[in-house]
Structures are given as C-alpha cells and as structure tokens.
Write a structure and sequence with these properties.
Layout: H1 13-24, H2 31-65, H3 74-84
C-alpha cells in the first residue's frame, strides 16, 4: 500500500463549505477523502484528454495521408451539396 503524504492546500471559503457539507451528508468520510476523490478525477480527466488528443492527431494524419480532396473551393462544395437536394 502506498504511503500517504501530508500536504497543505489553501481553498476558498465556498469550497471549504461545500467540502464540509459533503462530509456532513455522509458522501465522504472526511475532507481528505473529498480531496483524494477530486485528485483522482482530475488525473482521470487528464488521461482521457491525452487519449482524445492522440485520437484527433491520428484522424488528422489519416486525412493528410488520404491525399487531396475532391473539391478545391468552398463554392464547389456548396454546388455539390445543392445538387444533392
């Protein structure tokens, strides 16, 4: 089991109230649990964002690798779309 490290963090009064309310409602056992949960979610979001960026880069590369498009101007795209209607 990893060792816990004690740190000091300053938060606003509003966040302090929100955290204490969550503990009082029984959503968390302590303020430390609230902070740990927030940090876990922050970390998960960062990891998800990294995967999303990687996926977007892959899609951009696939587009580049597919070669030039069929249309050269926005007017050509509009004309083709109108012809489909």
């Amino acid at each position: 089991m990893p060792r816990n490290k004690k740190i000091s963090v300053s938060i606003t009064e509003e966040l302090d109230r929100t955290m204490k309310d969550a503990v009082e409602r029984g959503e968390y056992g302590s303020s430390s649990e609230v902070v740990r949960d927030a940090l876990r979610r922050w970390h998960q979001n960062r990891e998800r964002e990294k995967l999303e960026i990687q996926h977007i880069r892959q899609l951009v590369q696939e587009g580049i690798d597919s070669g030039p498009g069929t249309y050269k101007t926005i007017d050509e795209i509009k004309k083709a779309a109108q012809a489909r209607l």
